[in-house]
Design a protein that fits this description.
By secondary structure, the chain is α/β, with parallel strands linked by helices. 53% of the residues lie in helices and 14% in strands. The chain has three domains: 5-126, 3-Layer(aba) Sandwich (Rossmann fold); 164-295, Beta-Lactamase (2-Layer Sandwich), CATH 3.30.450.40; 320-482, Hypothetical protein af1432. The protein has helices at 14-27, 38-47, 64-74, 89-97, 110-126, 129-159, 165-180, 220-229, 275-319, 325-340, 345-357, 367-370, 378-384, 387-396, 402-409, 431-446, 457-466, 474-482, and strands at residues 5-10, 30-35, 52-56, 79-84, 102-105, 184-191, 196-204, 210-211, 233-236, 246-254, 257-266. The strands form two sheets. Strands 8-7-6-11-10-9 form a six-stranded antiparallel beta sheet, sandwiched between helices. A five-stranded parallel beta sheet has the order 2-1-3-4-5, with helices on both faces. β4 (79-84), α4 and β5 form a beta-alpha-beta unit. It is elongated and about 115 Å long. It starts with a strand and ends with a helix. The structure holds fe (ii) ion (FE2). Fe (ii) ion (FE2) is lined by residues 358-359, 387, 411-412.
Length: 484
């Protein structure tokens, strides 16, 4: 047996299996084993690989393509001939892509099969030990390249995920289904303190939508186990459970604490997940966890800084007689204008914050000037005019507000160059500052003050129109008016 090349025959149809086995045994050149299922074949193969596998395509439990994939993971140079009674172009392409050396259609002539086996085995004998080693190394290298490319694809896509956690969860499940070829994927949030699960999202490959109602409650016992061990698992049921045929589950963790579980299931499809799929899901869940942790950290830092600034703004408005809604209004009006101008999400976000904080520099203006009831002297007006650059100075200490500080610096510039602090004109003024200028003026006119009611919208619109190309960029004025 030691000197003979080995062949494994896999077919659930006994007569076909025997036919092939008998014919090959007659050759007396090969060591033959035969089994009636893909699962048994894989077990045998794991014990002792062989030179060639001849497998049926349609078999209960694990089909020929699945078996082919698993075998190639274990021993990349094993050759495979797939035999089927259901030929289709799709299956042929899939088998060839998976590396099957040949494809034989039922009913086949036994001589045709023997010929294919003979060619295949002779090629193996012709290849020296060294050639085989190179072939194995190449196959492993290709495998590794494919794995690294997929992991890099996962990382890139996680980095590109949207701005809130719901979007991140949607991206994660879509990505998990894509890289594993799974049937259904879910994220369940886990409250460790109360040992409770909360279904967050479910996506099925075929219905396209996202569903949070379908709780996968039957899997909670297994989820608890994964949450406890904090490690991704792959479970192939081999028919001993109705719940799934093959399952991957990975913990989502922040600071080593499990806050959710990502699971992917195959139930009807003839596919078992592989070690490679497990690696993908493990990488995906770790990267997604990091992304969510960073996002939450950023949000909490950002929120606490914004809260501090907003309380400063509140105190400024209390001093200079604006209602506290002024900055909120300016922010909303500016965002509406930017949306009408189809600016990018980043620009709109920047404008939202700049609108809220545009007058933060007024904190440095003494009460004697800011609260002066009568007209200001030139000197006093010059002090007022420092507030945009003071605002920029205040924000420059916080790296998060890099883009906003420029917008705030220039919110009192004029299109004709007669504004402050730099006297720049036209398109030299940042676009977002030009938008802020229009929103600020409009709200200053229409806003209620303690000493007068806000003026009508028409009055404000007339002022904007009178000042197009003087104080304001007319494109911005048009966009602004279109939102009213
Ligand atoms: Fe201002």
């Amino acid at each position: 047996m030691e000197n003979k090349q080995s062949i494994l025959i896999v077919d659930d149809d006994t007569s076909t299996r025997n036919l092939i086995a008998d014919a090959l045994k007659e050759e007396n050149r090969y060591y033959i084993r035969d089994v009636d299922s893909g699962i048994k074949a894989l077990e045998l193969f794991q014990e002792k690989p062989c030179d060639l596998v001849i497998s049926d395509l349609k078999m209960p439990g694990m089909d020929g393509i699945e078996l082919l994939n698993r075998i190639q993971e274990i021993h990349p140079t094993t050759s495979i001939i797939i035999i089927t009674g259901y030929p289709s172009v799709d299956i042929s392409v899939s088998a060839m892509k998976s590396g099957a050396i040949d494809f034989l259609e039922k009913p086949f002539k036994i001589d045709d099969l023997l010929f294919k086996v003979d060619i295949c085995m002779k090629e193996k004998l012709t290849l020296g030990e060294k050639d085989l080693d190179i072939k194995i190394d190449m196959a492993r290298l290709n495998n590794k390249i494919e794995e690294l490319s997929t992991i890099s694809y996962i990382y890139d896509n996680i980095e590109k995920t949207g701005s809130n956690n719901d979007e991140v969860f949607r991206e994660i499940v879509a990505l998990a289904l894509k890289v594993t070829g799974g049937e259904s994927c879910s994220i369940v949030l886990f409250d460790e303190d109360n040992n409770a699960f909360y279904p967050q999202i479910v996506k099925n490959r075929n219905d396209g939508g996202y569903n949070t109602d379908k709780a996968i409650t039957s899997l909670y016992v297994m989820f608890r186990d994964v949450a406890q061990k904090k490690e991704a698992v792959l479970i192939n049921s081999n028919g001993d459970t109705e719940l799934f045929k093959s399952l991957l589950c990975a913990p989502l963790m922040i600071r080593n604490k499990v806050f959710g579980l990502l699971s992917i299931i195959n139930n009807k499809m003839e596919k078992h997940f592989t070690q490679k799929d497990l690696n993908y899901i493990s990488s995906l869940s770790k990267r997604a966890s990091l992304n969510i942790e960073n996002r939450m950290l950023y949000e909490s830092v950002f929120t606490s800084i914004m809260d501090t600034f907003m309380s400063l703004i509140h105190s400024i408005h209390a001093r200079d007689h604006y209602t506290e809604r002024h900055s909120i209004n300016v922010s909303l009006l500016a965002v509406k204008t930017a949306t009408a101008m189809r600016l990018s999400t980043n620009q709109i976000e920047c404008l939202k914050i700049s609108g809220m904080l545009h007058d933060i520099g007024k904190i440095a203006i003494p009460d004697s000037i800011l609260l002066k009831p009568g007209p200001l002297t030139n000197e006093e007006y010059n002090v007022i005019k420092t507030h945009p650059s003071t605002g920029e100075d205040i924000l420059s200490h916080i790296k998060l507000f890099g883009p906003e500080k420029k917008v705030i610096r220039h919110h009192h510039e004029r299109w004709d160059g007669r504004g402050y602090p730099d006297g720049i004109s036209g398109e030299d003024i940042p676009l977002l500052s030009r938008i802020l200028a229009v929103a600020d003026t409009f709200d200053a006119i229409t806003n209620d003050r303690p000493y007068r009611k806000g003026l009508p919208i028409d009055t404000a619109v007339n002022k904007l129109n009178r000042n197009r190309n003087l104080q304001f960029d007319e494109t911005v004025v048009d966009a602004f008016i279109s939102t009213l």
